């Protein structure tokens, strides 16, 4: 394992209560009567490549507002983010307005967070939030850069030297960050966080995204993953006409949402070379305070590690 991960913090399983069994929810959903428009073959064809532009428009509309609440639960769910015996290079893939970045910078003074997104406006918003909510050193520990990881490669300055030599990656001496600064090789990423990001990417582009993550991690580095699980309340609220693929739905604004199972997620990461450490459904029942209605949420919690040596 990479330096600093020889003794990992204890698992965060205790942080989540399994309020219900996923299998019971599956049986309940599958027993409901299906309409004729539930058949995929009867649905209209949509352009999945339109997804990036749809997300850019989404972020442009919401960049001036704290649309997503700060995800303070992350440092409890993933104690690896709190390792502070050395500088920790973290990459947030699809950072949005910084809702995952802020709690990491606040909780771990030894963390440097590199963050990419496909939207310039949302990166500016994230940078502004870090400047205004984190102490002065936080601004130095946050490096946003523009990258549409669904179709582009991550910059080679993120890779560790051994991986660059192994894969024959051409080293770039420097590259410009979102705020115009020149960046130099940081010798690899210790941890990648993917928080409700992969579900927004068309399925045929997911393998590329995960392979890019693999390429910049140090041997022994981690991907910490949280995203929508199959039969989550969000999925059940979509109409049948919004279903555009297996486990794939399209919102009215054109953005996509995919709903994972542990098996489908594991297949993607293992095919890219990762080893699975944790991968399971989190089934949590929350209550709508205004309407006093229970809501069954299903998320995927997962951790994958890059092996020390290629298999």
Automatic annotation (TrEMBL):
State which Enzyme Commission number(s) the record gives: 2.1.1.-
Gene Ontology BP, a term: methylation
Keyword presence, Transferase = yes
Record's superkingdom? Answer: Eukaryota
GO MF: RNA methyltransferase activity; S-adenosylmethionine-dependent methyltransferase activity
Q: Which InterPro entries match?
A: METTL2/6/8-like, SAM-dependent_MTases_sf
Q: Does the keyword Methyltransferase apply?
A: yes
Ordered alphabetically, the record's keywords are: Methyltransferase, Transferase
Give the family this protein belongs to, as stated in its UniProt record: Belongs to the methyltransferase superfamily. METL family.
Q: What does this protein do?
A: S-adenosyl-L-methionine-dependent methyltransferase.
Q: What is this protein called?
A: tRNA N(3)-methylcytidine methyltransferase
């Amino acid at each position: 394992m990479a330096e600093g991960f020889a003794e990992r913090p204890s698992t965060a399983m205790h942080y989540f209560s399994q309020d219900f069994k996923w299998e019971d929810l599956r049986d309940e959903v599958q027993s409901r009567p299906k309409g004729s428009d539930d058949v995929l073959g009867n649905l209209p064809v949509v352009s999945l490549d339109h997804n990036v532009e749809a997300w850019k428009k989404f972020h442009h509309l919401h960049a001036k507002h704290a649309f997503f609440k700060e995800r303070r639960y992350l440092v409890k769910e993933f104690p690896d983010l709190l390792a502070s015996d050395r500088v920790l290079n973290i990459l947030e893939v699809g950072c949005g307005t910084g809702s995952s970045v802020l709690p990491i910078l606040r909780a771990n003074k030894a963390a440097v967070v590199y963050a990419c997104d496909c939207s310039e406006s949302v990166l500016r918003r994230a940078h502004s939030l870090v400047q205004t909510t984190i102490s002065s050193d936080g601004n130095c520990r946050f490096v946003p850069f523009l990258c549409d990881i669904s179709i582009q490669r991550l910059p080679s300055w993120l890779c560790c030297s051994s991986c660059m030599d192994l894969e024959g990656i051409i080293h770039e001496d420097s590259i410009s960050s979102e705020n115009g600064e020149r960046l130099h090789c940081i010798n690899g990423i210790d941890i990648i966080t993917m928080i409700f990001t992969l579900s927004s990417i068309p399925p045929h582009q997911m393998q590329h995204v995960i392979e890019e993550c693999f390429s910049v991690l140090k041997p022994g580095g981690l991907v910490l993953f949280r995203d929508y699980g199959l039969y989550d309340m969000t999925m059940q609220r979509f109409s049948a006409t919004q279903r555009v693929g297996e486990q794939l739905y399209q919102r009215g604004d054109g953005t996509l949402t995919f709903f994972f199972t542990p098996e489908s997620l594991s297949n993607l990461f293992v095919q890219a070379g990762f080893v699975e450490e944790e991968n399971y459904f989190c089934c949590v029942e929350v209550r709508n305070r205004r309407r006093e209605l229970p809501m069954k949420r299903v998320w995927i919690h997962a951790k994958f590690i890059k092996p020390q040596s290629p298999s």
